[in-house]
Amino acid sequence: MTRMYLATNDNFLNQLFIRFLQQNLLEILEMKMKIAAALLLLTGVSVVTVIAGPVSNSDQVQRTDLQQQGLKVATFAGGCFWCTESGFEKLPGVKEAISGYAGGQKENPTYGEVSSGVTGHTEVVQVYYDPQVITYEGLLQSLWRQMDPTDGKGSFVDRGTQYRPAVFYHNEQQRGLAEQSMATLAASGRYSKPLATELTKLTVFYPAEDYHQDYYKRNPIRYKYYRFNSGRDQYLEKTWGDQLHPDFTTFGRGQKANPATHVSLSERFQAFKKPSDNELRQTLTDLQYQVTQQDSTERAYQNEFWNEKREGIYVDIVSGEPLFSSKDKFKSGTGWPSFSRPISSASISEHTDTKFFMTRTEVRSQHADSHLGHLFNDGPQPTGLRYCINSASLRFIPREEMANEGYAELLSQLNE
Fold it and tell me: What Pfam families does this protein's entry cite (predicted)?
């Protein structure tokens, strides 16, 4: 990793600073950065590489202690790990974020080797979090709001595959959640380019040198100067606007059933309380909000599940109530997910829709009251029905994840 620091005439700077030696260190550093910034504009700079010392054994001890506390762990790459470490450590429920390297071939790589781009590693942060406070989905939503997921060749001012974005999953549950989150992000229309974020299983994580740990705390002035000039914050503000800082602890809440409970699915969702409009705006993408809350329709063939062929169930994006099964999904040629029946007729409600000078039957979810789509009488036998549903209203749960997500009692329906 190469960081741009100002290689100016130190003697010249020292002469300017000699008069300020009686002031505190913070004031001196601030002035030095201001003068260096001015020299950048007037004379240009050269680039120097900062290489930290060897990795401390304290990192391994720290990680072991964190695991013994019963915390869960996630690993993400979002460009410069100074920035992503800072972003994750500020989240509620995150106990520690450790900068390091993953995704390469060489064992125990040094910072200098990784920054050369030849080892195949990328800069990552390993996040230790309390799942009772923040979910893995919440961490993913924070990741998307920290970096550019469409840039596979670097990250803002830092170029090279050692800065490429990635999600390194630790288990199949994380893989499924990451796939779902990435698919939703890709279908949101937020980006003009396709996602270039890798999704790969974590094999080994190497902590970075001590110098890089908590860099934003140890070197706040240099960190802020680097971050501002990287263009990261400007891009994020433009891309996310007022959705840049939601309550990340709300993501994944209310969508999953608790696998430890023995309450039936029907009883479980009777107690569902719909989030406020403000909460929905924070937790849903623009498209999901427009479809579920404003009765919009997404584009045909340009949605997440129209061609989904895996076994599993489709649940309401807001409440998690089960709606449709892959067993009843069929190819309708319309460009939207189509089903011949719902999992249970009690899970949906039907309403007369007279918009656009026609009369149709609107379909909504029973508990979240989300707009799902419309019902037509041109489906396959034996029902003759076609439930034409917006992907933006749904969350897909693959068969292999159903038990873990609390929908084990519906597994038998996939075999009927």
Answer: PMSR (PF01625), SelR (PF01641)
Query: What separation, in Å, do the N-terminal and C-terminal C-alpha atoms of the chain show?
Result: 55
> Residue 145 is part of which domain span?
57-251
Instruction: Given the residues 66, 388, 389, 397, select the one marked as catalytic.
Output: 388
Residue written as tokens 């007729």?
Answer: 345
pLDDT tens-digit series, residues 363-402 = 999 999 999 999 999 999 999 999 999 999 999 999 988 8
CATH number, domain with residue 274? 2.170.150.20
Q: Is the dihedral of CA 316, 182, 302, 309 positive or negative?
A: negative
Q: What total number of domains does the chain contain?
A: 2
- DSSP 8-state secondary structure symbol assigned to residue 152: T
Distance separating alpha carbons of residues 100 and 380, to the nearest angstrom: 54
User: Do 229 and 165 have their domain in common?
Assistant: yes
Pick the catalytic residue from 80, 125, 140, 392. Answer: 80
Is the whole model's pTM more than 0.70, yes or no? no
Strands (E) across 250-370 are located at: 312-316, 322-325, 329-330, 338-339, 348-353, 360-365
